[in-house]
Design brief:
414 residues; alpha+beta; six-stranded mixed beta barrel; 12 strands; 19% strand
């Protein structure tokens, strides 16, 4: 062990012993620093978990990348699939050649009417590759009754649909019920198709469930009298491959546009912006409180020890060494509080994994979600470093004038 390191340890030990001279005050300071650290980590972990959940939901809904004609993203259509893709099969083969692409799923989006014979209502329909689409969506779609839509092996229309819970309730439909879809074809004529209800699903968004109809791509194309699809959803092997894959794939697609799931996820962007502001302000307030408490504790300690500081100065201790010792005391207090707070936050996060807690449905949704706190190493490291730095700098700022007080004046302090 070299001499500078031994000297640093000696100063640190000296600072630690000084914090124990008034144990009650040090305990209060450490407790508040611990509570502040735990609050920041728990709030930040909750926000990160929310971002991760919404990101997964958005990516599984649209695909990590969405391929369509530029007009599909920019303008409304006069007739269904006016800006659709003609050569979806060839594009799919091209995209699947990329090593990071796992699935390419076509989507046919259209609107129209759905009727049970007595009542007709507006529908927002989506033609999908049913087998792959529901496997990708996973837990983000709940089958309330019936069975999941299936794609015919020979590619023929199945003439089956899945309804959102609100729409099924409105039409008094249940699995096995017969309904009629009405929509404009790509030529502008009105077409109708009799279908049967395969199942009823819930997306967790009541407004969407009031209008949602899923059918297979072949049935949608038969109703619209076309072979086009609206877009292709490209699913990658991992989230962080999105931007590199977009640059790589876009180079070989001329006259088409690739958008990422973030560009399509307005809800995700809104929630993230809102949470960043809320939790950013919360973290700032907690940080100010911790700095204020540490500053106050150190100010009281320095005032009480002014004569002691004068004595140490008279014995030859330099102002810089005194400033270093007092700053180290703040670092010890802030560091101990930050470490305890991190352990508390980690314990709460692990406990929520063992004992699940269900949160009530947020505004605009019909189902709750599990309360979980993300354990992010970068968040923990950043918060700990910030707390230690703030406590150290606050202590140094409070001590800077006292350590430079003339020795005679410091010794005469009452």
């Amino acid at each position: 062990m070299n001499a500078p390191f031994r000297e640093a340890l000696a100063w640190l030990r000296f600072a630690g012993l000084n914090t124990l001279r008034n144990r009650r005050r040090s305990l209060v300071t450490v407790s508040i620093a611990a509570l502040g650290t735990a609050a920041i980590l728990l709030a930040g972990g909750f926000a990160l978990y929310t971002y991760q959940g919404l990101a997964q939901m958005s990516a599984r809904s649209t695909g990590h990348l969405i391929l369509a004609r530029p007009a599909q993203f920019q303008r409304d259509e006069d007739v269904p699939l006016q800006h659709g893709l003609d050569d979806a099969a060839a594009l799919t083969r091209t995209l699947l050649a990329d090593e990071h692409v796992r699935q390419v799923l076509p989507r046919v989006e259209f609107s129209g009417l759905i009727s049970n014979g007595d009542k007709s209502t507006v529908m927002m329909a989506v033609g999908i590759d049913a087998d792959a689409e529901f496997a990708v969506k996973g837990p983000f779609v709940t089958v309330q009754s019936g069975r999941v839509l299936a794609t015919a092996r020979d590619g023929r229309p199945t003439l089956a649909v899945m309804l959102g819970t609100g729409l099924a309730r409105s039409l008094k439909a249940q699995p096995g019920s017969s309904l009629t879809l009405l929509a404009s074809t790509t030529e502008g004529a009105l077409n109708a198709l009799d279908v049967s209800v395969s199942g009823v699903i819930s997306t967790g968004v009541p407004e969407l469930d009031q209008r949602l109809v899923y059918t297979d791509v072949a049935t949608a194309q038969k109703l619209l009298v076309t072979q086009r699809v609206s877009s292709l959803g490209i699913f990658l092997d991992r989230m962080d491959a999105t931007d590199p894959a977009r640059e790589r794939l876009a180079a070989g697609l001329h006259g088409l546009e690739l958008q990422t799931w973030v560009q399509q996820a307005a809800f995700y962007r809104s929630v993230k912006e809102l949470y960043n502001r809320i939790f950013g302000a919360l973290g700032l307030i907690i940080g100010v409180i911790v700095v204020f408490v540490v500053t106050n504790a150190m100010a009281m300690a320095i005032i009480e020890r002014t004569r002691e500081i004068g004595t140490l100065r008279a014995l030859g201790t330099l102002p810089g060494q005194m400033l270093q010792t007092l700053a180290l005391e703040g670092m010890v207090l802030g560091g101990a509080g930050a470490l305890i707070g991190a352990l508390v936050a980690l314990g709460v996060s692990v406990m929520l994994l063992i004992v699940p807690v269900e949160m009530p449905p947020p505004p605009g949704r019909s189902s709750g979600y599990p309360l979980q706190i993300a354990i992010d190493p970068a968040l923990y490291a950043g918060t700990l470093v910030a707390m230690v730095l703030l406590a150290t700098l606050a202590s140094a700022w409070v001590a800077r004038r006292t350590v430079r007080t003339p020795v005679v004046e410091a010794l005469a302090h009452v």
